[in-house]
Amino acid sequence: MPSTVLVGTQWGDEGKGKITDLISSDYDYVVRFQGGNNAGHTVIADGKNLALRLTPSGVMNPDCTPVIGNGVVVDPRVLAGELDMLRENGISCDRLVISCDAHVIMPYHIALDGAQETRLGKHEIGTTKNGIGPAYQDKAGRTGIRIQDLLDEAIFREKLETALDYKNQLLEKIYHLPTFTVDQIMEEYLPYADMIRPHMAETAQLLNTALREGKNILFEGAQGTLLDIDHGTYPFVTSSSCCSGGAPTGSGVGPKAIDKVLGIMKAYITRVGSGPFPTELFDETGELLGQVGGEFGVVTGRKRRCGWFDAVIARYAADVNSLTDIALTKLDVLSAVDTIKVCVAYEADGQRYDYFPMQHSVLYPKNVTPIYEELPGWKGVDISECRTFDELPANAQAYVEYLEQTVGVPMSIIAVGPDREQTIFRNWSAR
Ligand code: GDP
Ligand code: IMO
Ligand code: MG
């Protein structure tokens, strides 16, 4: 039963889209198992630069079936727009399969996401304001509306009435915002049901049957380990399970079906939104990494915060995901800097932390001092044309080998640019 989970190992935007698209030819199915259109996965192929938010990045490969699993929250408006965008680019979406159990993002979720952020003020999470958190709140609170509910008008109306009865009170009385009517939402959403109907399936059965037939499945994670609801820098996280453990629950296959876990790791580190970030750079080096790396959000256009590679986080991600392999991305961006720093441990209150600390207060700038190792760089050498490890400058090879040894997981893929071809395969195999 060959299957692989691909996960972000930092705070998202590690290059998951590029790597998923790149290796999808080795898989029969590519499955999103969590998150929603908070994700922005860039895929550059055949001269096209596409940002995918909901559709699995395997959609670019005509031999691959893209699946939106039960763990995803689906905004039908965004889905409709994305399918149109893909078709306009000549990419067929006929093969797309959507789980009947995935939850639906409703207009009131989006309104509440914004309202909750405003209420938090300076303590805001910095969400993408796409209604992700409120949709997962309803899922856990057992008042959510699933894809299958949209397909039966009577059931949809009944669930919507129950939900709006409470949501409207929240919007009106607590947040002083406009309310929604059942008819207004039904009128907009029922046509989406027609759009979704041909794609809907019981995806747990689909995927388990595929596994029995010896098909190969790639689970495409969104966000990253430190944005995971359980393992991330709570409360500055998203509301789903972004780690590899989310793949079984978010798709309906058992954990024994997974035999590889590929962690996507940037050669430095970025974060969008609020929350602690021990190696964050507030100087011109941080600016430089952001400019050279093009570190602006795919979904929101927000500037990403930049910092040095954090091996404490990398080792933690290796553990909580059971990483078997790492794809190191954006190594080419480091050609812009002189000396490269790697955070190997933290110091706070006179104590050294080699492992991710129990108390997250340690991670805040006012408390933490990162302990850095300095490595010589390869400034000015363009590595984006390198296609084998041996072609990399000696200092770039040494940097990768140092990270590999510090993290303890083989770096099987190295990305040296955004295009498919700008990749070095070392010892990666899908099976
Ligand atoms: P994702 O959310 O993990 O899929 O990552 P994003 O697409 O949000 O952000 C990654 C950005 O880096 C995108 O613009 C990619 O095209 C780009 N990218 C991916 N790999 C590389 C690489 O190795 N080098 C460079 N320079 N850019 C890359
Ligand atoms: P990809 O898949 C980076 C961040 C938001 C915010 C927090 C919560 O492209 O890596 P949410 O809207 O999910 O409630 O926001 O999570 N966030 C991401 N940051 N990449 C992403 O996705 C993200 N998805 C959510 O910025 O800090
Ligand atoms: Mg992204």
How would you describe this protein?
The mean pLDDT is 96. Helices cover 31% and strands 20% of the residues. The protein is globular and about 65 Å long. The strands form five sheets. It has a ten-stranded mixed beta sheet, with helices on both faces. Strands 14, 16, 17 and 18 form a four-stranded mixed beta sheet that branches. Strands 3-4 form a two-stranded antiparallel ribbon. Strand 3 and strand 4 form a beta hairpin. It folds into three domains: 161 residues, Adenylosuccinate Synthetase, Chain A, domain 1 (3-Layer(aba) Sandwich), CATH 3.40.440.10; 86 residues, Adenylosuccinate Synthetase, subunit A, domain 2; 160 residues, Adenylosuccinate Synthetase, Chain A, domain 3. Bound molecules: guanosine-5'-diphosphate (GDP), 6-O-phosphoryl inosine monophosphate (IMO) and magnesium ion (MG).
Provide a compact summary of the structure.
The protein contains twelve helices and 20 strands. It has helices spanning 16-23, 76-88, 107-120, 132-140, 147-150, 153-174, 182-196, 203-212, 246-249, 284-292, 311-321, 394-407; strands spanning 3-8, 29-32, 41-45, 48-52, 65-68, 73-74, 97-99, 103-104, 200-201, 217-220, 260-266, 269-271, 305-307, 309-310, 325-329, 339-348, 351-353, 369-376, 411-415, 423-425. A ten-stranded mixed β-sheet has the order 9-7-5-2-10-1-11-15-19-20, sandwiched between helices. Strands 14, 16, 17 and 18 form a four-stranded mixed β-sheet that branches. A two-stranded antiparallel sheet has the order 3-4.
Number of domains: 3
CATH class of the largest domain: Alpha Beta
Look at the structure and name the CATH superfamily of the largest domain: Adenylosuccinate Synthetase, subunit A, domain 1
In percent, how helical is the residue content?
25-40%
Question: Main beta sheet, described?
Answer: 10 strands, mixed
Q: How far do the termini sit from each other?
A: 9 Å
Bound molecules: guanosine-5'-diphosphate, 6-O-phosphoryl inosine monophosphate, magnesium ion
From the coordinates shown, what is the CATH architecture of the largest domain?
3-Layer(aba) Sandwich
Query: What gross morphology would you assign?
Result: globular
